[in-house]
Design goal:
With about 170 residues, the chain is mostly helical. It is built from 5 helices and 2 strands; from the N terminus they run H-H-H-H-E-E-H.
Length: about 170
């Protein structure tokens, strides 16, 4: 019982991961809806771990002392795997932006020999390629920051799982 009254490292790390993730996805949505940045296909895919992982992590945090330990570990493993995927996607997207490797054909480069005249006025559509950087800060794009932040969230979740395992063994 005293374990939870002193705010153990496992819960603090999980809470920090949630807060960091929430601020990140709110920042991404804000940059789109308030800042005018248009997300590409890879940007939108990088948001999926936040949309799935944060609600699961919120549930774990809300039910911290009521979850069976096996369910806790499974939920934390799922959230950690989602943010490992987010880290990978951020690194992949950054590499596409830097030209280190090709991106998906759906959102990188330009098509040739296509006639869109029958579709109406396409000038109204604003499509951004996955290889186009709309914003950099300190030389790092938003995809690069997502990779770093997702790696940080993954590390915090690993700390939480490790601390929980230590508590269980003690």
């Amino acid at each position: 019982m005293a374990r939870y009254t002193s705010r153990p490292l496992d819960k603090i790390a999980a809470g920090a991961a949630f807060l960091l993730g929430l601020l990140t996805i709110l920042g991404a949505l804000g940059s789109q809806h308030l800042g005018g940045l248009t997300p590409c296909e890879l940007c939108l895919e990088q948001r999926q771990p936040y949309y799935w992982g944060l609600p699961i992590l919120a549930g774990v945090l809300l039910l911290w002392n009521r979850l069976p330990i096996a369910v806790w570990y499974i939920a934390m493993a799922i959230v950690t795997a989602l943010f490992v995927w987010s880290t990978y996607m951020g690194v992949y997207h950054s590499g596409v932006e830097w030209g280190w490797w090709p991106g998906p054909t759906a959102c990188s480069g330009v098509g040739e020999g296509l006639d869109f005249s029958a579709l109406g006025n396409l000038n109204d559509a604003h499509v951004v390629g996955c290889d186009v950087v709309q914003f950099r800060f300190l030389g790092i794009s938003l995809a690069g920051y997502n990779a770093l932040i997702s790696l940080g969230i993954t590390a915090l979740l690993a700390v939480s799982i490790s601390a929980q395992a230590r508590h269980r063994r003690a």
